[in-house]
Amino acid sequence: MNHRLKRNRFYYIAFGIGVVVISYTLIFGVGGCPGPERRMAEKAIPRFDKEPIISVYMHDTGQRVQMPLETYIEGVVAGEMRPGWPVNAYAAQAIIARTFTMEFLSRGGTRRLHGTDISTKPEEAQAYNASAVTPDIKKAVAMTRGEVLSYRGRYIRGWFNALCAGETSLAKDGLAYKGPEPPYTARVSCPCPRYTPPEEFYWKASFSADEVRAALAKVGLNIGDIRDVRIIRRSPDDRVTLFRISHSGGSTDIAGNDLRVALGSERMRSTILSSMTFRDGVLSMEGKGFGHGVGMCQWGAYAFAKQGKSPEEIVTHYFRGVKVVKLWD
Question: Is 210 found in the same domain as 93?
Fold first, then answer.
């Protein structure tokens, strides 16, 4: 996960289960991960008699807390989006966050890590900030209560990004996703350019050769002295999907999003590059957008909300063949 919009930050994911004390296995069966399309309809999403109570590992304090799932979603929306945005944008994020949470929990959540359904550490799940919950966020979560996105009766992976810059991406391109491309991801147009301030839309970043080498070493790529960095391949939506780094030990190829994550997604904000140079030991980039570009664009949700679109209309715009289903009242 994986880039969030809480003051220029954005991340992803999240469950296990505890409705009253019903086990996760009884409710979901074994293996809730969507998998290939032919397996999508094997087991339908369950309908809950009541809102689940989940256990949450509070990363900042180390505490394990029980809370209603909708209370958790309020904290996620507050952690993932900016203050003062339209209610329908928050509500769209609530549907995505709830979908993301339920799909993640159906695969075990953070049980092995913390013995809880989910964690508030962004790298492990989703951003969470209960102190930033506002009346508008509470309203947005309540108006979409229990709603998730499904594809052929299964949870989808609730991917979202801060700013797609006008067109969303497939998972294989934006995320360097290693599995089969999910049938519900799609490249779709987005109205975000009309509403995003220029200082948010465009970005620049520079990295020394030592910074690049150190970043790659952290992800297991040990290279020699860097001599050049080139773009080898782009996707149809203009994202760099493959870089080639020439160095004293030969050359190393790395997926576009993998390099972005290694260098830091706060600095290399996207893989939509308008220019890139490597001169005098410095890698310089200019680009647009923020995040991997897959799924719902948060600035796009803002734009659609300003245009009067409903939360359900917003989220279904960004995925193909999906439905909004209500899991509990």
Answer: no
Torsion from C-alpha of 247, 252, 253, 256, nearest 10 degrees: -60
- Identify whether the C-beta of residue 274 lies closer than 8 Å to the C-beta of residue 248: no
Q: Are strands 250-255 and 154-155 parallel, antiparallel or unpaired?
A: unpaired
Its pTM stands at 0.85
Instruction: Give dist(CA 71, CA 74) in Å, integer.
Output: 5
Residues 113, 238 share a domain:
no
Out of 37-46, 155-164, 199-208, 281-290, least confident range: 37-46
Same domain, 95 and 126: yes
* Residue 189 resides in a domain: no
Spatial separation of the C-alpha atoms in residues 13 and 34, rounded to whole Å: 15
Q: Long-range pairs for 17-25 at CB < 8 Å and ≥24 separation?
A: 17/52, 17/54, 17/105, 17/117, 18/52, 18/53, 18/54, 18/55, 18/66, 18/117, 19/48, 19/49, 19/50, 19/52, 19/53, 20/50, 20/53, 24/105, 24/106, 24/108
Instruction: Give the structural domain span for 264.
Output: 198-288
293 assigned to some structural domain: no
Weakest mean pLDDT among 10-19, 80-89, 277-286: 10-19
